[in-house]
Design goal:
Layout: E1 6-12, H1 19-26, E2 32-36, H2 41-47, H3 64-72, H4 80-90, H5 96-99, H6 102-111, H7 113-130, E3 134-140, H8 142-150, E4 154-162, H9 165-172, E5 176-178, E6 185-187, H10 192-210, E7 217-221, H11 222-227, H12 229-239, E8 249-251, E9 254-257, E10 273-276, H13 283-286, H14 289-299, H15 302-305
Parallel strand pairs: 1-3, 1-4, 2-3, 4-7
Antiparallel strand pairs: 5-6, 8-9, 9-10
Length: 325
């Protein structure tokens, strides 16, 4: 960027809302690099040495090894547990009320000075090693994204990806296997109540922090994204001031994905080749009626705010442009 800052396209929302898919597609745009949930690089990368989206162990990854050498002089030169402690102490959802007022923001910025310095070095190294103009970060948590935006070297743009909470809850009720050949594990399942509460908190927190920053914030519904992927991606590129970049699609509802270096996330981060974009609405016919009613009750009125119908099967009234407002 002309001012020397690192352009970060931050995807906020709740897991199982299509964030990994959106990040993978954006990573195919020339000059973009998708790093997945980089918020967890200290845990899943340095501490647990999980598999990167490219298929290699984190410590052997051809991108992350030079990134940490560039940022810190090597993977062993930074204390990951200290970074995790700082993140969990001051960059969680419960800290959003503090972030809304200048005194609270100054307090958090002061307490996280070392953490912010490390984030600046890390994202700068990603930019340098990959030669990218835009880093796509799908960490999702609004609290982390807001803290990231405090780093002086970061130019943050936020894509708020929203999905029908009943579809999200249905996905969280199913087991998904993380394909690790040595230590395979299932992603945790969650109850409809737990997902409903997290969906509300995550989306409300994202709106509260950024919805007034119209030039740096875009609300996009998952359903509109898969229905009109070309138009949706174009809107995201405009948010990043990269509207002249060629779209990565090879068809109206089909994309060609290459390998990425995503840190953790949905198992579909390993998808490569041609991928068909289609609505995933199995929940509408397979979810138990009592679960559907419970989720609807717990997520109203945000459900209506985003243009989703109260009765499953009916089309939403809002579009991805304004969320039904």
């Amino acid at each position: 960027m002309s001012d020397g800052r690192i352009k970060v396209l931050y995807v906020a929302g709740l897991g199982r809302s299509g964030t990994t898919l959106l990040g993978n597609i954006l990573g195919q745009v020339d000059g973009f690099v998708s790093v997945g949930e980089i918020r967890l690089v200290w845990d899943h990368g340095l501490v647990m040495n999980k598999i990167c989206g490219c298929g290699a162990r984190f410590e052997e990854c051809e991108m992350w090894r030079p990134v940490f050498s560039e940022a810190f002089g090597g993977m062993s030169k930074v204390d990951p547990r200290k970074m995790i402690h700082l993140r969990e102490s001051w960059a969680r959802t419960k800290h959003i009320p503090l972030m809304l007022a200048p005194p609270g923001r100054r307090l958090i910025e002061g307490r996280l000075a070392e953490y912010l310095d490390s984030l600046g070095k890390l994202y700068r190294a990603v930019q340098t090693v990959t030669g990218s103009r835009v880093i796509v970060d799908t960490s999702k948590f609004p609290s982390y994204g807001f803290v990231l935006g405090m780093a002086p070297s970061v130019d943050l743009r936020v894509v708020h990806l929203v999905r029908d909470p009943r579809a999200v809850a249905y996905s969280w009720m199913r087991k998904k296997l993380q394909p690790d050949p040595e230590t395979p594990e299932y992603t945790p399942q969650e109850s409809p109540t737990g997902t409903s509460l997290r969906w509300t908190a995550r989306n409300l927190g994202t709106e509260v922090l950024w919805r007034r920053s119209k030039e740096r914030y875009l609300m996009l519904r998952y359903e509109d994204f898969v229905a009109e992927p070309r138009r949706s991606i174009q809107r995201v590129l405009e948010l990043a001031d990269e509207e002249t970049a060629p779209l990565p699609h090879v068809g109206e509802h089909e994309v060609k994905l290459g390998a990425n270096h995503n840190i953790w996330g949905n198992p579909n981060r390993f998808q490569t080749g041609l991928v068909r974009l289609r609505p995933d609405d199995e929940w509408a016919s397979r979810m138990r009626p009592e679960d559907r009613r419970l989720i609807t009750a717990l997520t109203f009125p945000l459900l209506a705010h985003y243009g989703y119908p109260l009765i499953a099967g009916r089309r939403g009234t809002g579009s991805g442009e304004d969320g039904g407002r």
